[in-house]
Predict the 3D structure of the following.
Amino acid sequence: MTELVGAEVVIKALNDQSVDHVFGYPGGAVLPLYDELFKNNNAPQHILVRHEQGAVHAAEGYARSTGKPGVVIVTSGPGATNAITGLTDAMMDSVPIVCLTGQVPTHLIGTDAFQEADTIGITRACTKHNWLVKDPNDLARAIHEAFHVATSGRPGPVVVDIPKDIQFADAKYVPPAELKYENYKPQVKPNIANIEEAIELMGNAKRPVFYTGGGVINSGPEASHLLKELVLLTGFPVTSTLMGLGAFPSSDKNWLGMLGMHGTYEANLAMNECDLLINVGARFDDRVTGRLEAFSPLSKKIHVDIDPSSINKTVPVDVPIVADCAYALESMLMLWKSKGHKVDTKDWFDKINEWRKKNSLDFKNSTKLIKPQFAVQRLYELTKDKDVFITTEVGQHQMWAAQHYHFNEPNRWMTSGGLGTMGYGFPAAIGVQVAHPKSLVIDIAGEASILMNIQELSTAIQHKLPVKIFILNNQYMGMVRQWQELLHGGRYSHSYTHSLPDFVKLAEAYGAQGIRAEKPGELDKKIIQMIDSDLPVIFDCVVDQNENCYPMIPAGAAHNEMLLGEKEDDHEVSDEGKVLI
Amino acid sequence: MIKIKKEETESHTISILVDNEAGALARVIGLFSGRGYNIESLSVAEIDQDKHKSRITIVTNGSMMTINKIKSQLERLIPVHSVNDLTSEGPSIEREMALIKVVCSKSDKEEVIRLSEVYRAKTVDTTQDSFIFELTGNIEKINSFVDLLRPLGLEDISRTGLAAVTRGSK
């Protein structure tokens, strides 16, 4: 044990947790900590953001592209409350975040002091756990525990609230090796009886399908590798959630594309008609299941999840497997091999190939207007051979990116799936670029979303992070407009983005580069110009304003009630569907 | 018209062992309010001073699927050590204590005393025109005593919430 002051303990704890970068914003209640960041040569590199929400999203991008926890430092009161959206986003998408918040000194807590907020109370619902440190000798333990909780089991955000007097006080330092974490020991290895049951079902399946999710990516690259091997061996088709894209290579012949509300026809029909559904690290989200009563009605269901509370939450399953995906996949692989199972999937694939012929992601291209899908396709073709990371904001552009940009590796795709946070993608891209300074990092954005955290362009310039923002600019909050068209009689209430800035000039005002493309013919040349730039770039891609995102399972409908495109006039949505989001 | 669906519910007693630390109760209660579960009764007290453990007993209602969800959600909380659904796990002893004040006219006095004897309530305070009864029993027993006293001058009630343990050697 070493005697230090609280602020020194924080830095030492971060060192012992191998933290290289922190994202943050200073303020009154964290001044001792910032003083330590200034003085201490061992302090992690600090990335100054322009809004605390940006700090958390940047840490999320950092975490999801590296598998390491993202670390955030913000001040008390408004610093902490501004971080809430990011923490909730990380909670929903299971991203490991350690957020250190300043707090007013202990003797002022509860007095409505300047910049006081009940951070612990406010963040209780949007963190996996949180700690208020009232004794300086508890500080080291709290921080180490915070890292342990954030990164083990189902990952998630945690908050350590540190009053200012604690940062100044003498404090004992305890290294992580001396601590035992009795309270939190999640189950990571599967129960073998469950694996046996699962393999038995798999060996006898006629129409099986793997439905994989973000859990495979959170489990680490080994899990993706094992998934590939299991698919190769079984010959089963694979679909994935939005969060799981990249865990299985999209170039593989067994890949069905993404499933769910804007997933492919073949993926959703396979879910509807399969006789065995093998869920690995996904959580039967409502975007995926559609109407629950009609969800995958013919199948037996296996569910691998590290979080027991995810199992039987909305969809009752036949074989629950509580485990880390990698351990579960490893056991399944071993048992499948030793049993020598062989499943003939030819008839099943014949059916799938019929569905594939629908070509559900197809769209009518134009020579006059840039179609947003075409823009994403060109971006993909021109960047796919590079070391590239993609983030997105939320809305139509996000779905087009998921449909038309393809991934063959995990950790390359960062999007806000659960919370659906507009303004996520750009700061997340900044975090990715911090972790991968030499890589190409592109935020596929909408013109409405990007304005929610545009101030972070200043961060990108300051830290020389040449992030590319590829805006599909249709001047509408496109997904809102699409729903208003389909559900509200085309009354476009407040979804037109009036008075947009000139994005080229906006980029230049920050010291970044601005590029605009308005015609399909100039797209390639300008995308290459964007890729070649050493600066952050705003690419204002002016696209068809009226394009809708298809295919689509309307709210409250079943997988086999998909709309494939504009041609269909059966846009009827049930009353029950209208109340859904 | 859009109908709001109601599901069949049943009442369950859930016993939760937690670390007695600041905010532990708030985490448990916040889970119930945040996810829209009901609390019919709640009691909490420290049961092991050396190990800083508290017992929270909650009576809630919901479908069996909801009850199981409540259980696994509670188990996710870091300060929670164990969660037992006493209603599902077999017979248990459940008791609640209530202090009941009755202010009554002379003519009702006899009936009030008679009822207290029938229910074996202890009289802990008495004046010319009032009684305070202490009654221990299961929820139904207390409810029915209170219902009978209501027309006879029931003035105030304070209840502890349910305490429960499983029967037998387990």
Remarks:
- Chain B has two domains: 10-85, 92-166.
- Residues 99 and 158 of chain B are 5 Å apart (CA to CA).
- The mean pLDDT of chain B is 94.
